[in-house]
Specification:
The structure holds two protein chains of two kinds. Chain A contains two helices and 32 strands. Chain A is mostly beta strands. By secondary structure, chain B is mainly alpha-helical. Chain B is 51% helix and 0% strand. The chains are: A mainly beta, B mainly alpha.
Chain lengths: 447, 120
């Protein structure tokens, strides 16, 4: 079971890879978000071209009990299109920043997808029947002459090939002056929040012409701007609580019951810094790129440039766990600043039981940490290790002078191959890893 | 602590402090990297994580401009020092306003009509 075994006890195997193999990657094909739905049956991806592709988990094959089913394309649609705001001379990218699924309430599936400015609610529904035997029209749709009809019949529902249709049900627009970085569905299943660099808004899923501003950190004088909001999330079971992280490495927890405008926080999480170790890079690498509550709601995890930290919501003055993702990059900060990699926004995720966490790195490496055993592992998403059911070999970056066989030196890492987006199935040991324009799916070998 | 003790600094102390700074530079990889960066970009601002970088982030996507930007850009060309500084990594990298766009200049952003290759 996932909770008991350590990460090194897992045997992660290659399952599938989606996307083109060609070296020339079109900008539009770069995957920008990956998200499982609440049951894990569906896996959604968004890309820079504004497109959403949803995969569905097929039923396990009875002939091969050792394999979990595969994910195959279920639906794909164009969610957002490029726009130009003529009033502000602002180009609005169609890139999908985030996708969040709504909990399933009927046979259809709903998700929220957002670009920099507009959030959309999409309904993905199935149609596998159609009515036949209409009175007023033929089977091919032509209208029948009513005077020729001599008898009445009741149309019957006949099965048809499954058709999956995606339709936009709501468009939540014009509420953000700055770029939206996060959306999060509330546990009340009625509201959700959207956050941009300076403001957070609360929406009702049914109402598109009104939004409540709940956090506003815009200073009266923009010259005094010192920090921006980098991520926000609703608490998984307390519908009045949410958190937001900042570019200064702090997290604020807010309670919507205290005031209409949550500018003053209920809790403030910050790790004390040693002032003598402060450098030009300190603030930049402390900027939090992702914040995620644990499924239990007791903990939250933050990702900054070099590490992942787990915080106990009951303790504000320091994290309870810190995991180094790629500490060897600390002596490369100068070049990482020059090539802008230092601003890369990595995400992080919990496994279903909150016993393990995963995040990406460079060279198509991704890291997993076991919270119980404190063991960690580095794996690679590459075409070379993509043979069916092949077990992934742990990778290692050599930091010292002597490079062992099979290790890769820091200077040989490919900083263009970044894994920013990963997702862990909510119930099973299945993970989805986005490597630029390819989506890898790995599974734990069932023994 | 009394002011007296804080105020006086013997030469010995100064030497020890310098030594500590040198140790910091040697032992802290971050400070080594910082020194490298400052050597390459001497004009780098002193508020690195602050206003400049953040404001650049907020104005991402800003394509064109108004007449105010145009006149500012014209003024910058006269002052030869500024363009060099602006092109460095001090947060002032993009200069808007240096030319007037015409409809022919504007790149046409059309939505992808091609399906995602993930669905292939």
């Amino acid at each position: 079971m996932a909770g008991v075994a350590g990460v090194n006890d897992f045997q992660w195997c290659f399952s599938q890879v989606k996307g083109a193999i060609d070296e020339d990657v079109a900008e539009a094909d770069i995957i920008s978000t990956v998200e499982f739905n609440h049951s894990g049956e569906l896996l959604a991806t968004g890309d820079k071209g504004g497109r959403v592709v949803i995969f569905q988990h097929e039923q396990e094959c009875k002939n091969r009990p050792n394999l979990r089913g595969e994910y195959n394309v279920y639906s794909t649609f164009q969610s957002h299109e490029p726009e130009f705001d003529y009033l502000k001379s602002l180009e609005i990218e169609e890139k999908i920043n985030k996708i969040r699924w709504l909990p399933q309430q009927n046979s259809a599936h709903f998700l929220l997808s957002t670009n920099d400015k507009t959030i959309k609610l999409w309904k993905i529904g199935e149609r596998d029947k159609r009515a036949e035997g209409y009175n007023l029209k033929d089977e091919d749709g032509r209208l029948r002459d009513p005077f020729r009809i001599t008898s009445l019949r009741v149309p019957v529902l006949m099965p048809m090939d499954l058709m999956v249709e995606a339709s936009p049900r709501r468009v939540f627009a014009n509420a953000h002056t700055y770029h939206i970085n996060s959306i999060s569905v509330n546990s009340d299943h009625q509201t959700y929040l959207s956050a941009d660099d300076l403001r957070i808004n609360l929406w009702h899923l049914e109402i598109t012409d009104r939004s409540f501003n709940i956090v506003d950190i815009k200073p009266a004088n923009m010259e005094e701007l010192t920090e921006v909001i980098t991520a926000a999330e609703c608490h998984p079971n307390q519908c009045n609580v949410f958190v937001y992280s900042s570019s200064k490495g702090t997290i604020r927890l807010c309670d919507m019951r205290t005031a209409a405008l949550c500018d003053s926080h209920t809790k403030f999480f910050e790790e004390p810094e040693d002032p003598s170790s402060r450098s030009f890079f300190s603030e930049i690498i402390s900027s939090i790129s992702d914040v995620k509550f644990s499924h239990s709601g007791r903990y939250m995890m933050t990702r900054d440039y070099l590490s992942v930290k787990v915080w106990d919501l009951n303790m504000e003055n320091r994290p309870v766990e810190t995991y180094q993702v790629h500490e060897y990059l600390r002596s490369k900060l100068c070049s990482l600043y020059e090539n802008d990699c230092i601003f890369d926004k990595f995400e992080c995720c919990w496994n279903g039981s909150d016993s393990a966490i995963m995040t990406g790195s460079y060279n198509n490496f991704f890291r997993m940490f076991d919270r119980n055993t404190r063991k960690d592992i580095t794996l690679e998403a590459s075409r070379e290790s993509s043979k069916p059911r092949a077990t992934l070999k742990p990778r290692k970056v050599s930091t010292g002078g002597k490079r062992k066989k099979d290790e890769i030196s820091v200077d040989s890492l490919d900083f263009n191959k970044k894994i920013l987006h990963t997702a862990w199935h909510p119930k099973e040991n299945v993970i989805a890893v986005a490597a630029t324009n390819n989506l890898y799916i790995f599974q734990d070998k069932i023994n | 602590m009394s002011e007296e003790i804080e105020g006086t600094k013997t030469t010995e102390e100064t030497v020890v402090n310098d030594q500590n700074e040198m140790d910091d530079k040697v032992t802290s990889p971050e400070k080594v990297e910082e020194a490298k960066l400052k050597a390459r970009y001497p004009n780098l601002g002193h508020k690195p994580g602050g206003s400049d970088l953040l404001r650049k982030r907020l104005t991402k996507g800003q394509k064109y401009f108004d007449s105010g930007d145009y006149n500012m850009a014209k003024a910058k060309v006269k002052n030869k020092q500024l363009p060099a500084a602006a092109s460095e990594k001090s947060g002032g990298g993009e200069i808007t306003g240096d030319h007037i766009p015409t409809p022919q200049d504007l790149p046409q952003r059309k939505p992808s009509l091609v399906a995602s290759k993930l669905a292939g």
